[in-house]
Amino acid sequence: MKNAVVVGHGMVGHRFVEALRARDEAAEWKVTVLCEEALAAYDRVGLSSYVGAWDHKELALAGNDYPGDTLVEMRTGVRADRIDRDHRTVVTSTGDTVEYDALVLATGSYPFVPPIAGHDLPACFVYRTLDDLDKIRARADAAGPGAVGVVVGGGLLGLEAANALKKMGMTPHVIEFAPRLMPLQVDEGGGALLARLVTELGLNVHVGVGTSSITENDSAGLTVELSDGSTIDAALLVFSAGVRPQDRLARESGLEVGERGGIMVDIGCSTSDPAVYAIGECAAVEGRCYGLVAPGYSTAEVVADRLLGGAAQFPGADMSTKLKLMGVDVASFGDAMAATPGALEVVFSDAPKGTYAKLVVTDDAKTLLGGILVGDASAYSLLRPLVGRELPGDPGALISPAAEQVGIGALPDDAEICSCNGVSKGAICSAIADGACDLPAVKSCTTAGTTCGGCLPSIKSLLAASGVVLSKSLCEHFSQSRAELFEIVRATDTRTFSSLIAKYGAGTGCDICKPVVASILASTSSDHILDGEQASLQDTNDHFLANIQKNGTYSVVPRMPGGECTPEQLIVIGEVARDFGLYTKVTGGQRIDMFGARVEQLPAIWKRLVDAGMESGQAYGKSLRTVKSCVGSTWCRYGVQDSVGMAVDLENRYRGLRSPHKIKFGVSGCARECAEARGKDVGIIATEGGWNLYVGGNGGQSPKHAQLLASNLDDATLVSYIDRYLMFYVRTADRLQRTAPWLESLDGGLDHLRAVVCEDSLGIGAELEADMARHVAGYKDEWAGVLEDDEKLGRFVSFVNAPSEADPTISFDESGARKIPVLMGMPRVGA
């Protein structure tokens, strides 16, 4: 077995290890990874999303610790200090010597710090790693809200850094020596609009000036002097003026490097030593370094192929970029600056609307060379693949308001849709033709859309254009979707399934539509779910207000808001479990579950619990299950808010809310996240300034981290946002769709959801809050509702013709430490 040593474990280094291990079916190579950072590979492209969440795990790349793979050895916090090419070894910072058959340098780049007087003062930082952001955050927190932060550099990374400072509560100033922001990506017209838009969003922009000096002032801050003689007093300064390839190891070991830096490699990514390769930002492929992740991934794939005997070559790089800065779309592709001789520029600028679009075409106006989009980059997915190709129409029409008439069908099959992973339109269409009939299936088959996600709108268009018709029908009895049926019920005040299907459906219904309609009816009223016709629509769990178990018995879960329970209630739970012979278990949602109750015992159990002040925990329904919390500031020395109090209030507010799927909350009293809120449908994490609200997470078969919706909310705003979020989900989600896939499928994703919930873009905020207020006002405990109604009580029998008899088929094995259900026809444990 041969040993490949990888120096560096950023996004590209991780991609190389994944590619090699996926292709090395004969297990020829063992991989040793030397990662100088304490953290394994994370999403450096999404660095600014770390602000607010402050959770390293959120940015971690999937599988970055290679669990269960014995052929990959990860060494985090270990630096490669020296390469001995003669003996093919690497000496590490820990003094170890690692032998290699192939050495892959993936050392990336380092931030360039201009040699300005004062650049090394303690309040000066760079913007490159999570550790850098932690240091900036500490300084920003010490300075307090509204303090000034200066960013030197108005390029892509500079604006990202400025946005991060703004999210930390600072007042950011951006200094750019060029006459416009993002000078490498946008032209004068696009830069002017970009500056106006970000200024409106709270940035202070200084272009056409340099930074002359940085000095400490009497206010324990910095005074930044600009080349025009003006000064800015600031609490901190961040250098984000570009990067340089990290080629120190290569230089010291005698490998050839480029005149402007970077490790010289050929199109096979091999250095001047055939046993050493370089990939990513540190590699100068035929003399040129590439600072984007997509070409870095290409170099990783090339080297993985070469180590296994292939002859892959670097295919060149698409330097196109599309991003959203502080909510402002910016895209640049191809020859954006019209450097091609004879190139023509077609510009469409709409200042009131805040959009700028430019296409660069050949002198006959037939071939697209490049373009720039600012303010609205929706046309990017169509235009970028057309670079170098004949245009399907008039260039002006492609960037005018009528551009929507030109569809993705105009692209040839070899046009690249996903530049991050090199996936063509033809590959996506082939996957669709082979049965990939939705977005997750296409992503799984082709890897398109799995990196930055910028191509997802194009993939959706291809799904539609390929003739894939996804029926919105709920089932054969209703041609409407669940969301449409919800609106019909609301608008018509329909209160029974029979009247709904008679007027808007066909037939008698099935086990798909009946529970869905039952849920909709429950979501739009406070009627008891066992009232009248409603009772016949419920599945077994809802029909008996308890979870049926494998031997026909039921489990009973009383609600414990926020995990709170009085000693007296604990005693009652213990006594009930003892008296009815129930098995007890503490759940992951901070409740006590009692198993083994027969159907005729349920009302008697409920009465004991209700008399003790407890109620149904709705563990049987598609509704709010639990609100998990840590002990928060009332007990914990790290807590900054009362997480228990908030959890109790939220659980009491949303208890009993029927929804397309079960809902779980978590409330953590500080960033240590003991309540695991980021894994919940609604997660709330305390900050010094209030609460951060996360949405769309879940555990289960397909775990998803919740995403940050809003930061530093006061109690009232937090509750109003949750009201809107939950009711918007209840209205619009598909049948049995959890919040995570609902958010993923939502047109516009998190940005659209934030606009609806936080900005009330649809004008329905008050309506959603009113719907929730009606639910809260009308809530009644379902167990108590049964106990007060003799007709409902009559349902809880094992045999209709012998209501006093217990089911003789139910039995348990109690020979061991645990009570275990025994199925009829099955031997007992140990028998």
TrEMBL record:
It catalyses: hydrogen sulfide + 6 oxidized [2Fe-2S]-[ferredoxin] + 3 H2O = sulfite + 6 reduced [2Fe-2S]-[ferredoxin] + 7 H(+). Residues 3-286 form the FAD/NAD(P)-binding domain. Transmembrane segments: none annotated. SUPFAM superfamilies: FAD/NAD(P)-binding domain, Nitrite and sulphite reductase 4Fe-4S domain-like, Nitrite/Sulfite reductase N-terminal domain-like. Its EC number is 1.8.7.1. Its cofactor is [2Fe-2S] cluster; siroheme; FAD; [4Fe-4S] cluster. Keywords: 2Fe-2S, 4Fe-4S, FAD, Flavoprotein, Heme, Iron, Iron-sulfur, Metal-binding, Nitrate assimilation, Oxidoreductase, Thioether bond. Residues 621-760 form the Nitrite/sulphite reductase 4Fe-4S domain. Residues 549-610 form the Nitrite/Sulfite reductase ferredoxin-like domain. Catalyzes the reduction of sulfite to sulfide, a step in the biosynthesis of sulfur-containing amino acids and cofactors. NCBIfam families: nitri_red_nirB, PRK14989.1. Belongs to the nitrite and sulfite reductase 4Fe-4S domain family. This is assimilatory sulfite reductase (ferredoxin). The lineage of its organism: Bacteria, Bacillati, Actinomycetota, Actinomycetes, Mycobacteriales. The gene is nirB.
